[in-house]
Amino acid sequence: MKISRDSLMRSLRDYIFITIGIFIYAFGFSAFIFQEKVVIGGLAGLGTIVYFISEKWLGFPIPVAITQYACNLTLLAFAYKMVGKQFVKGTIFGATLISLFIGFLTPLFHGPLVDGQPFMNIIIGGLMCGIGVGISFTHNGSTGGTDIVAAMVSKHSNVTVGRTMLYTDMVIISSSYLILHQIDTVVYGFIVLALTSFMADMVINTNRLAVQFIIFSPKWDEIATTINKVAKRGCTVIDGTGWYSKQPVKILLVVCRKIESVTIFRIIKNIDEHAFISQANVNGVYGQGFDAIKLKAKGGKKKIEEAMKGTDAPA
Questions:
Q1: Which of 67-76, 93-102, 137-146, 163-172 shows the lowest mean pLDDT across its residues?
Q2: Which of 12, 63, 42 is nearest to 130 (CA)?
């Protein structure tokens, strides 16, 4: 019962943060980018193109949200057999939410929030879109769009997901010149693409950054126990020798998320303010309590086992 409750709480938290992230994205797009008539990447950009084409040729604009949602559903129908049921189910929530938010927010604004400052609007909108995407992605969310195209392409080719998304977004942004005939809006579109990618990476990587502590203290056992109980992090005790004192010492090795480092420092200071501590940034931490290794071994597990058997020395 406890496991199912914990799992439910984690899922609920993820959905809350996905909703917040998508709202930030939708607000940045609706209040800043769309009002400057700038076409960005993804289905939001494609919806913007359809909006202006329909306004010019049909006399009435087709809302971005309708085009975006219709394209998402079409892509998901094609992707169902290729990428699996789980991916489609997870994407429907984000795709529905982003279309609802954009459909609701876009009509509320009748011009950019920062009047007469197109570049400023593009910067603010791009930053908000990147933050929203980063928050959503960190909590296993997806807004669909070029994500679906990239997932389908990577399933049947060696082209990476990131490269496919980049190529698709570049085509959408560049095509806006054929409708608006303004090179500055194309440039603004690429600026938004760069800002969104940069901010999304910043949000995602900040959440995953880790640090490593090496702690020397005569109260090592009390520090280790408190870190286990309060910070919920493991400690490794290493035997060492202080070469100056020629006395045996105990060394604590602790790895934690960067945002948890303040908690570790507080624990150490409260127990032994004279402790000797070194802190170093860690590029990646994988295993229990941290990130999972998602890289698949080339050739599969069977091939590796066969190679290992071949290296066994004869008896």
A1: 137-146
A2: 42
- The three-class DSSP label of residue 117 is coil
Per-residue pLDDT tens over the stretch 256-296? 888 788 889 999 999 999 999 999 988 767 777 666 665 55
Gap between the Cα atoms of 178 and 271, Å rounded:
67
CA–CA separation, 180 vs 53, rounded Å? 9
How are strands ordered across the β-sheet holding 235-242? 235-242, 247-257, 210-216, 276-282
All residues at 6 or more sequence positions from 74 whose CB lies less than 8 Å from its CB, including other chains: none
φ and ψ at residue 171, rounded to 5 degrees: -65, -45
Residue 281 has what DSSP assignment?
Answer: E
Q: How far from 272 is each of 66, 227, 263, CA to CA, in Å?
A: 61, 13, 14
